[in-house]
Amino acid sequence: MIELLKGLPRELLVVVIATLPVVELRGSIPYAMGVLNMGSWQALGWSVLGNAIPALILLHFLGPMQRFLEKRLPVAQSWFTWLYGRSNERGQLISKYGPLGLFLFVAMPAPGTGAWTGCIVAFLLGLCPKKALAAVLAGVLLAGVIVTLAVSGTLAAFRHFV
C-alpha cells in the first residue's frame, strides 16, 4: 500500500498512514523518522494530525451508522446487542474511570489500543462524544510522544552502533 502512496508529499503520506486502523501513529512515526528521515517533532505532529482524523469521524458517525444498519438489516440489532454486552464485559477500565480510563487506554502504545478502538469502545459504552473525543485526542498525543521517544532512542542507538 505504501508503494501506491509514494507519489504523495511525505507529510501527507505520514498523515494517511496514521489514519489507518491498526497502524495509526504507532506505525507512522517509525516510518516517518526511519524511512523518510523526518525530524521527531515533524513526525509527531503529522502523525497526531492523521490519527485525529478517524477519531473525529468515528465519534460523529457511529451513532447514525448504527441506526441506519438497524433499520436496514434485521440481524444488526441482535448483533449490536451482543456487541454492547461484550464491550461492557471487556471495557471495565473505561467503564470504571470513564474518559480518564479511555485516555489511559488510547495512550498505551500497544496493539489494539489506539484511536480507532478507543472511539469504538467509547461509543459502545455510551460515553459522551465530546468527552470521549477529548480523551482520545489526549491519549493519541501522549502515545505519539511515547512512540517518538522510543523511536528516537532506537534510531540513536542504531546509528551509534552502525
Automatic annotation (TrEMBL):
Keywords: Membrane, Transmembrane, Transmembrane helix. Pfam families: Sm_multidrug_ex. InterPro entries: Sm_multidrug_ex. The chain crosses the membrane at residues 12-31, 43-62, 100-126, 132-158. PANTHER family: TRANSPORT PROTEIN-RELATED. This is Small multidrug export protein. It comes from Desulforamulus profundi.
